User: Fold these one by one.
Assistant:
Number 1:
Amino acid sequence: MAKKRLGIYGGTFSPPHKGHIEAAEAFMREMKLDELLIIPTFLPPHKESGDGATPIDRLNMCRIAFSHIPNTYISDMEIKRGGKSYTYLTLEELSHPDTDIFFLVGTDMILTFDLWKRYEYIFSLATICYARRESDSENDVKIDEKVGQYEKLGAKIVKINHKVHEISSTDVRSLADARELSIYVTRDVCEYIFAHSLYGTSGGAEKELSEKVMELMSERRFTHTLGVVAAAEKIALAVCPSLTAKARICALLHDVTKEMKQWELVGRYSLSLSDDDRMSPETLHALTACSYIREHFPKFADSEILSAIRTHTTGSPNMGLLNKILFVADFIEENRRYEASKEIREELYLTFARGNSQDSRHALDLAVVSSIDRTLSHLKAYGKPVHTLTHKTRESLINSIEKQSRGN
Ligand code: DGI
Ligand code: FE
Ligand code: FE
């Protein structure tokens, strides 16, 4: 059987920018990799705090930036290991008789590779891959010389067909303006940077929205809302990183009308309600929120966001990922006081920690069912009617979970 071709791409990734993404794509394509592992390096604490991004932020930004490249995974092995991120240790840990390892190094690094700790051992563990810079012909001669030297020592070195873009993370960090920043990093990463006020950024569309939402509700409801934002982000990063920014916005807005007079809103927006809706007034705020958002926050009234908010209380058969993310985040956010919330949260986060997105999605489906089960027993205890959608959501999920387990 052919050996698995595993690519390793390490770096600080503070932040991961478009140059990194292009390099990763070229690496994958040119070396015909079966799998690519992106490994953010550990940084000593004084360096981390200097630029405002924590190791978790760097991991999260990588999850978001590289999530569109198939078979690409983000590893926290160097951050977890701590200390100096020695490449030979990382490669040694990943080496396996059934795997060929390809290691991507920066153009400049190839010139100084013989200063790396145990570099000859590295040569025995991996094929070294590098790409040329866009405009750097004078370096070419030096690089060729170095490559020749390394090859004499038994190194396997491959130049990949890709022109490296000149983008420096240091320069990117100095841009606090969203429009400028989005030239160098993808929109999703840009949104993460603003949402977490990294690299001296402040304000941004989400912060503005958050201040308005705060005005519309009690402190207690807003605390819950922020809890849902954090949980929704965490879930999105595990199941579908490109949904992270949308998940945060859904969470911020999901209960905007919860403390308003529902029947008044139903009238004002001329909502047509089902009998179930009428029998379950606690579920109305999910419907009125959608109309309220269209009226007051049209910029955020995107159909996926509205759909997730509409289904956040009762659920709906065939919910999309964003719907499930909000549904479960609402249930498990850290300010919830009931025991079931904690249990479901812990179980889910345990699966996320294993880092497999398919398992994480499966765990999310199970979490939706468990949340519904808890709601059902709560409603029963209080003698309240169950909305038909709640029953249907449960049924549809159980069916799809069964189908999946039969498929595997
Ligand atoms: O708005 P939150 O409190 O954050 O949470 P939520 O939107 O899930 O709303 C919870 C309330 O909705 C709680 O009082 C139970 C109620 N609820 C949820 N599903 C149903 C329901 N009420 C009825 N009658 N039927 C349901 O299916
Ligand atoms: Fe709600
Ligand atoms: Fe809520």
Number 2:
Amino acid sequence: MYSDEQWIEWFDRLAEDDHVVVDDFLSGDLYRQIMAFFSNAEKSDRLKKAGIGASGEFQIKSSVRGDFIYWLDEERDVEISGFFDLKNELIEKLRRFCFLSLSGSEFHIAKYPEGSHYDRHLDQFNERSNRQITVLIYLNENWKKGDGGELVIYKEQEEILVEPVARRLLLFKSDVIEHEVLKTNVSRYSLTGWLLHKPESVGYIL
Ligand code: OGA
Ligand code: NI
């Protein structure tokens, strides 16, 4: 969907800064498809409270993380096949241009209800460290200052604020970037995933 030159430019920024923000990454059509899917998932009560820790140490703690998620399945969720095509293109280009040995991925949609947040953390857990690249796609059409729910990226000397505006992509290196979701004052929607460098059989983090 994007030219090799375009992918390479984004990957250069990712390599240099450990993260990259791409505005207008989703087309309007794909954005609407994802939002329709999201709203069906919400109406049919498929979003579940997210927890922290991998299988054995799984816990639900709203004081740490307040979002509701629904894990996606490429075979089942054909309504958003356009998203999976784009995700597969991303993986293919990362393999080709960054020589990453990616073996799979896992994605969920996430809703942070008004008043919720996610404390500062790293997307790798001690017992399961195969998340290599974090992929965030923000879905908040009319997001404005004061709505909250910004993502804070912590670097040695700086804190970078990423506003969760619709159709924006954020990629970062899961093993080095500590980050936090600030309290949101409105419902906050995103599509979140991880590109993995080991088989998924080591267990899901729900
Ligand atoms: C996560 C996470 C950030 C965001 O799900 O691990 O950090 O901006 N999400 O939604
Ligand atoms: Ni995270």
